[in-house]
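User: I'm putting together a teaching handout on how multi-component assemblies are represented. Below are the sequence lines for each component of a complex, exactly as they appear in our records. Could you produce the 3D structure of the whole assembly as structure tokens, so the students can see both representations side by side? Please keep the chain order the same as the input.
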Amino acid sequence: MTPAELRTILEQVREGQTDTTQAYDQLLGAFRDQPFEDLGFAKVDHHRSIRQGFAEVILGIGKTPAQIASIAAEIVTRERPLLVTRTDRAAWEAVAAVVPGAEFHEAARAITLKRDMPPGIGTIALCSAGTSDIPVAEEAAVTAELMGNSVDRLYDVGIAGIHRILKQRARLEAARVIIVVAGMEGALPSVVAGMVSVPVIAVPTSIGYGASFGGVAALLGMLNSCANGVSVVNIDNGYGAGCIASMINHL
Amino acid sequence: MTPAELRTILEQVREGQTDTTQAYDQLLGAFRDQPFEDLGFAKVDHHRSIRQGFAEVILGIGKTPAQIASIAAEIVTRERPLLVTRTDRAAWEAVAAVVPGAEFHEAARAITLKRDMPPGIGTIALCSAGTSDIPVAEEAAVTAELMGNSVDRLYDVGIAGIHRILKQRARLEAARVIIVVAGMEGALPSVVAGMVSVPVIAVPTSIGYGASFGGVAALLGMLNSCANGVSVVNIDNGYGAGCIASMINHL
Amino acid sequence: MTPAELRTILEQVREGQTDTTQAYDQLLGAFRDQPFEDLGFAKVDHHRSIRQGFAEVILGIGKTPAQIASIAAEIVTRERPLLVTRTDRAAWEAVAAVVPGAEFHEAARAITLKRDMPPGIGTIALCSAGTSDIPVAEEAAVTAELMGNSVDRLYDVGIAGIHRILKQRARLEAARVIIVVAGMEGALPSVVAGMVSVPVIAVPTSIGYGASFGGVAALLGMLNSCANGVSVVNIDNGYGAGCIASMINHL
Amino acid sequence: MTPAELRTILEQVREGQTDTTQAYDQLLGAFRDQPFEDLGFAKVDHHRSIRQGFAEVILGIGKTPAQIASIAAEIVTRERPLLVTRTDRAAWEAVAAVVPGAEFHEAARAITLKRDMPPGIGTIALCSAGTSDIPVAEEAAVTAELMGNSVDRLYDVGIAGIHRILKQRARLEAARVIIVVAGMEGALPSVVAGMVSVPVIAVPTSIGYGASFGGVAALLGMLNSCANGVSVVNIDNGYGAGCIASMINHL
Amino acid sequence: MTPAELRTILEQVREGQTDTTQAYDQLLGAFRDQPFEDLGFAKVDHHRSIRQGFAEVILGIGKTPAQIASIAAEIVTRERPLLVTRTDRAAWEAVAAVVPGAEFHEAARAITLKRDMPPGIGTIALCSAGTSDIPVAEEAAVTAELMGNSVDRLYDVGIAGIHRILKQRARLEAARVIIVVAGMEGALPSVVAGMVSVPVIAVPTSIGYGASFGGVAALLGMLNSCANGVSVVNIDNGYGAGCIASMINHL
Amino acid sequence: MTPAELRTILEQVREGQTDTTQAYDQLLGAFRDQPFEDLGFAKVDHHRSIRQGFAEVILGIGKTPAQIASIAAEIVTRERPLLVTRTDRAAWEAVAAVVPGAEFHEAARAITLKRDMPPGIGTIALCSAGTSDIPVAEEAAVTAELMGNSVDRLYDVGIAGIHRILKQRARLEAARVIIVVAGMEGALPSVVAGMVSVPVIAVPTSIGYGASFGGVAALLGMLNSCANGVSVVNIDNGYGAGCIASMINHL
Amino acid sequence: MTPAELRTILEQVREGQTDTTQAYDQLLGAFRDQPFEDLGFAKVDHHRSIRQGFAEVILGIGKTPAQIASIAAEIVTRERPLLVTRTDRAAWEAVAAVVPGAEFHEAARAITLKRDMPPGIGTIALCSAGTSDIPVAEEAAVTAELMGNSVDRLYDVGIAGIHRILKQRARLEAARVIIVVAGMEGALPSVVAGMVSVPVIAVPTSIGYGASFGGVAALLGMLNSCANGVSVVNIDNGYGAGCIASMINHL
Amino acid sequence: MTPAELRTILEQVREGQTDTTQAYDQLLGAFRDQPFEDLGFAKVDHHRSIRQGFAEVILGIGKTPAQIASIAAEIVTRERPLLVTRTDRAAWEAVAAVVPGAEFHEAARAITLKRDMPPGIGTIALCSAGTSDIPVAEEAAVTAELMGNSVDRLYDVGIAGIHRILKQRARLEAARVIIVVAGMEGALPSVVAGMVSVPVIAVPTSIGYGASFGGVAALLGMLNSCANGVSVVNIDNGYGAGCIASMINHL
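Assistant: Of course. Below is the structure of the complete assembly, with chains in the same order as your input.
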């Protein structure tokens, strides 16, 4: 039931065109069965469009190029930005055939089509510990940029050579929120959070071998960070970190 | 907003006592903010009372006797059955002072006050592997009985002496649903499920030592059951198993 | 020893054709060595045929198309329904050559041949959280349908957009038992169980990455459900959930 | 070396009071050994005072009342807010003797002394799933309030009765950042994040038993959240969540 | 049904005192419902008495001295050996009051009453790695001795001083079966098994700290033994190892 | 140093051909550096030949056919039985070219060349729970047979149809030692051990999916067996179980 | 057999006082049964005394004051340094009564009696991340000092305030080997190892809560260190780290 | 800022060519932003060149031959030794085309180009338990040799045949530091450490199956070593062990 329908029913009651019992039954059904979102109020709509912009990302794993292209085409018709993560060049070729202008980001393994989005207030700094962490970092970067943010990349600043990150103090201090991507021992977010006073989103990566257990070591390191301001997302979840950072940067 | 209030608003609209804009705003607020349950429809109410009868069990862990007694008193005033789990004699003494007739079940570590409940259709068979599993089994029994079920207890029928459970085939076949409580290797549910064609609710217990890992060995054994009809609840969750069995027995 | 053989021995004793010592030895041997099931009594048979209908499902993993076809042919000669799980089109082609009428369910990765089965009493509602969970959900659906049940599918109703499942309250309330299939955080069963008062069979799936640990996160979430009525089967075990739901629906 | 000392050296060089070799050695030593923070520049100082306000929280575990009182006294002399977490009444009595005005927060198990802090921009909504999660939630609340934030508490809104949280949509939408505290299956953050478009800080608690594994089930559930905007802190880390929320609320 | 009853029925049939239908029904019931063990044949009885001698050990954990004494008294009246494990002096005092002659083994934390048992064929060698492993080793020793075996103890022969175990080659070679008890890295069984050609029963102990994880490190070490002839029992399960060694020594 | 060399030195000392200082140095070196095994005494040799018969099994994983053939050829020249495990037909073809008479056991994935071995005293019963466990069971069978044992195979006797194993009581009782191979919940060893009084060697297999965790569920089930006489080897370690059973059967 | 005895036998052979057969038997026995260490050669003895100085440390856990005092007294009579770890004041009082001069180190929870030991070549730097890590650090310090090393303590230099450790570069560079003790995320060893070129011994501590899992997070962080030169000991194993550092410092 | 630049600024101040305010600003910037390492002092440089020699190893996993060749070429131009680990022949061919003289080590899966390095003081003994552990051992060997060390290989000396390692006592005692590589139960380091008094670096390997859990069993065994002097690196981290041993051997 839309607000317009509700108003019509009330007017029909007032005019005597609908009796109260019939109106009562219609409204009762709406109360019980309809999601509020279906009412379609402006404010809700506005919220949803922002949220849906995020929510309708396509996770490329386990989908054929044809499937991805088909979902992508549908999203694009609703004038929303397009984001496909964990995908490849073959999928991009299928998407590009139906979504002119779709871009492929090789390092990020992502496909995008930009739309005008409200710009973020400040800059998102994005640190990665090693070169192997870059695909996850780039997924975060592409996500954040698509959502209207400016991203400052600081790659290969892991703690084994601590001067590399110390040197970047000014750029870190200039950011409104910082994403830190790291595998192995996952200690970079603690060091970064100890240098600044803005929120740090930590992304453990599955980079490593042996007792890294596919990113568990990094994940535990980040959860146990002794520095203030560190919160954590799932292993390799660059997309999630990009979303959260964008939310914070749009506040 | 109750159904009566809705009807009143509609009648006021018809009578011209309320204009449609004002009614529109009232109804819109109700659509967006009120839980359907608060409407208080008979059917919903009926469902809730059944569900709340289950839901308002008091988990005794970490609550003082005084706190337990206070919550118990409130539940009882609403004419609902009382169930306190994982509790002790001291709590019972506090409860009994404000809830006359409350019973203490020492083996089950539970306090109850019975109410008339619709009776279950058949019998719930309740097997336990060893004597140490009895407290968890009794928690299931007390729960199921409080909800109006008849429970047939078959205790100490673990698989190390396989004849013990085989001997009970007739009683197992007579049940409408079976709860099986076991620690250590947790294999009894598989054996029981292989003997009958009714659902088996498996409850792993934390009984054991070393590589039982507080019930994990039993839990994994039950989840990997090669017999049909076995589903599993949390370690030591006698209450949960009693609930599910009662639900099935009331279908 | 069959009942007929037992009766014959007794009659031979009565007639003096067999002396009691010889009869004693024969019966003693039967007592000790024969499974009761081999006696072939009607009631037992009846039970077995129900149970065997479930038990003789063929798990397709690790079997060649030829092996699957050979076992399938044998099952079908005994007039039982055929179910092959976790299989593929190649196996189906081999089966179809020897079992005319065998169907292939692509989404469920299953092969079936229907037989008349006693119909379930009510409907089994089957919810899945995301589109990636559908293969496991379909395995449950195919299993339940083969066993004579009517299945109401509610797919893609995960909790990140909570209105999707709330909207389906009426269909959930109409079910006699509900299967909920979910990966990632596995929270959908708790939400569903909080909305109804019938048993919920939760199936964790291995869908996810990183700290989903192949379905462990979903499994733990379901075992720790704070809602009443949730029991759990193994990760990806759509077949098991279908069986249990069918058992409950035939009570 | 302070900026003043640096300036003095340069002036002495200019005046010829110090020769360049001696100045060179002094400066070289400062370059290599001194932390930049010891330079004491205004901007750095300002940052540090904010950060140190957070950093000097006293974790009460494993410290005697006397030790806590002694550290507390030192912090207070530097005009900073005092926060002691995971402590008890005995520690508070020791602290109160040397820090007049120190407050004890029983539910949060915390001791505080307020100072004027720059106020947060909006409100921090704070949800807890069950009553047992309140100590962790209160630790977050006390932390955030001490840091100048206004906190809107929504307690006991767990998902087993989904209407409880749905009812609070307006209050959730009014918040600038949301903390969600939950044990057991840890699904509340996903539901909340699906309803809003602001960042959600999820705090798993160790509440539960059996397969909750001291909060691991909740932690994994939160890390695998299928909703956008959820990041996670360590099990029971109310303090950490309060910090991060305050950082975001001061941006 | 006992063999005598069976014979009686057959004779009554022969004599015409019972008709075949009645006899048929009686026998059918016995076939289906009675465990074979209840028939009470000599051979079965003999087997059972051996097995029950093992099976009726009382695990002292979680039982009061009164409960232990009561079960002990019942076992002793059936002329069987008594074994209570994981118990204490208080329980022994209660047992001794009703079971004259019961002994307390302080190091093994066990209570026994000896009976004549068939002697084992050879000697059981029993090695322990460190002095902290002795309680578990002594539980194995007391168990094996009670079952009629001669035990040769070789304590404190851990591999950090490899000469200690090498020195004992002759005693190891003289054994018919060897029990090896070890905590920490659990490597002693591999070394011992590499020196002999008889079966080695490995018992991991929970001795250790940190990454010993309550005996898991030792358990995994033993399961992964690169030496032939090593099988493993549960952590701290001295009783189980004693049983198995006795079984082997009686072959 | 061989015994003959020792005797020669002593005789040279007696004859004055070697002075005591030179002999002292030679003997001291031998004491310190030589393994006793290199002395080559009869008794030791005899022991070693038995042990080496086991020890020189070739684990086929990660070795090329050429490598396997080369090691096999060397073993065979020393007149010892040949056993290659976890191998394939290609390796067998390479081996057969250099070891005439080498056999390939497809089900066991093993290559053997028999030698006369001292026969085991009794029979080894070998149970497997499901057909998928047969490769591991056959590895145990081939190992045990090669070592001179007679093996009685009881396959597909898992506990979901408990009558299957109960039926085999006589064959189980006839065995001197029993190997039980099972995946999934791993409960078969407990049931078997509860039926007999001989040692049971339990072999968990990696058969299963989801929460079987590659055999961990079965392993834990077996370690926690509540029946007497069960010891456990590594997951899928059919070879190890065959060795131990053979050792016991040769006592 | 001692070298002197060997020489005597040879001389008796030469003199004809012993015939070669008798000598042969004596020597053969010695070859087979005696550990080389029992020969008592000077060099071996010297090595052993160093090693035993380490090996005979008394782990205080689970020992009574009387037991500790008794073992301590025996060690001291052999003129070796005394070290009791994980002990308390009560044990010290018992030790002091029989070992005059024994010292109690409260922070390290250790008892020592110094002996002259060969001094280490350089200094051992000892870093701890937080004040809670000091007991483990002090155990390492007391161990290393007892073994003749000079220890430079750098406490409370955790990475959340990275300037704290950077400031200490000179002291770190002056060390010959560095021990780094840290709980929580365990990242300090990586930072330290990135600043120096000497070996770093990392000691994870069990300090922390929640997902620190009793030191597992720190342990994994250290094992996955991306810096060169980091090796790791067991959780809380300050003693072990002190030993290794002393070994390196004496090379 | 280099030392020369600092000296120039000071001289310009003295000469009046630069005023103090300008100098002050330049120096302040250098204090805050420049890593000390960029100063380029001789001593630091010397340290860095040693450390960087280690740090710039190329981990071959996940890099194309072209990428590896390109990084290798850059390293070689700086006159440093080249080390590529976990690589293959294809990568070597790419490297050899741009780095004449680069060697491929097949067993170690490594590419090197030697440079003159300061020689280690003593020998590094390198033990491996089984032949499958050799690739990891060879990675350690190649690393250590490249860094100027002499390596004594003792392969296939696992503890199942304990005489194999005992025989090598003299070679072990001759080493200044020992690396021990072992999979499965990982007990060899304990045995070796019990025989010597120099540091032992233990490297668990992922060799094994079932409950070896990809090297976790070996890792835990090594962390729990009851022998003094054992520290541990990550699973399969031959490179790391080679580095640490070289550091120790250069002290």
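A couple of points students might notice: Confidence is low (pLDDT under 50) at residues 32-55 of chain A. Chain A has eleven helices and nine strands.
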